[in-house]
Automatic annotation (TrEMBL):
Entry superkingdom: Bacteria
PANTHER family found in the cross-reference section: ENTEROCHELIN ESTERASE-RELATED, IRON(III) ENTEROBACTIN ESTERASE
Key words of the record: Hydrolase
Gene Ontology MF terms in the entry: hydrolase activity
SUPFAM superfamilies to which the protein is assigned, alphabetical: alpha/beta-Hydrolases
Keyword Hydrolase: yes
Protein name as catalogued: Alpha/beta hydrolase
A UniProt-annotated Pfam family: Esterase
Xref: InterPro entries: AB_hydrolase_fold (IPR029058), Esterase-like (IPR000801), Mycobacterial_A85_antigen (IPR050583)
Keyword Hydrolase: yes
Upper taxonomic lineage: Bacteria, Bacillati, Bacillota, Bacilli, Bacillales
Length: 245
């Protein structure tokens, strides 16, 4: 049975206006940790697929547990919602909304959050997180704004050939750190780009990024391309970047 303390979550709904997104705005949900105090400052985790990270990944409940019982410093979570019909167009590098979404994220979302909430502004205090194409776009955001982001959580990242080509073109990624997992049952997953072996493309991306100097915590486990698998590794992913030495 889940400890009732973990279920007492503070989640604010926000709407941000945007000149880069055709619809002109985007819904956000912002988790505030137990004991939240505007006079303090907090690390922040930015999640793609915000609604799913909160509803299916249960990231707010997991955050409460880590903060209350596992010694993790309190942190803020920003979930960025996405219209599933437009998800591939925004998250995939060959999508017609991709560049606009990347610009929105770095040039509008971050200033909006940092103006409104007491989040820390160093790259070491910001984490990008995503599942599947959300993991891929998180990496591309970090590559586009290296002075802003250098920590990425990719749960079964959809690292298609176009993403691998972009990574191959990078000269030096020694400042980049990733947490990558993939499920061993993800060898023939049907996507908008065709059927892919996610184990293979994650192994390939790991090798590419490592060859550029990136630090990678990589592992493969029994699991399919579903939230039931990814949810199990959210605690470990957060601990990897948030647990103080």
């Amino acid at each position: 049975m889940t400890d009732q303390r973990y279920l007492k979550r503070t989640i604010n709904k926000e709407v941000i206006t945007s000149r880069y997104l055709p619809e002109g705005e985007r819904n956000l949900r912002v988790y505030l940790p137990p004991g939240y105090n505007e006079m303090l400052s907090y690390p922040v985790v930015y999640c793609q697929d915000g609604e799913e990270f909160f509803n299916f990944g249960r990231i707010a409940t997991i955050a409460n547990q880590l903060i209350l019982d596992e010694g993790i410093e309190p942190f803020i979570i920003v979930g960025v919602d996405v219209d599933k019909k437009l998800r591939t167009a925004e998250y995939s590098p060959d999508g017609d909304r991709h560049q606009g979404y990347i610009a929105f994220f770095g040039e509008e979302l971050i200033p909006f959050i940092e103006d409104k909430y007491p989040v820390r502004r160093e790259p070491s205090e910001r984490i990008l997180a995503g599942d599947s194409l959300g993991g891929s776009v998180s990496l591309h955001i970090a590559l586009t704004f290296p002075a802003m982001f250098n920590q990425v959580i990719a749960l079964s990242g959809a690292f298609y050939p176009i993403s691998q080509k972009i990574a191959e073109a990078q000269a030096d990624l020694r400042n980049l750190s990733l947490y990558m997992i993939v499920g061993l049952q993800e060898t023939a997953f049907e996507t908008d780009h065709g059927i892919y072996d996610f184990v293979r493309i994650n192994r390939e991306m790991k090798q590419i990024l490592a060859s550029k100097g990136a630090a990678i915590a990589y592992s493969e486990h029994d699991g399919a391309h579903v939230w039931g698998f990814w949810q199990k590794f959210i605690p470990d992913a957060l601990i990897t970047f948030l647990l103080s030495e």
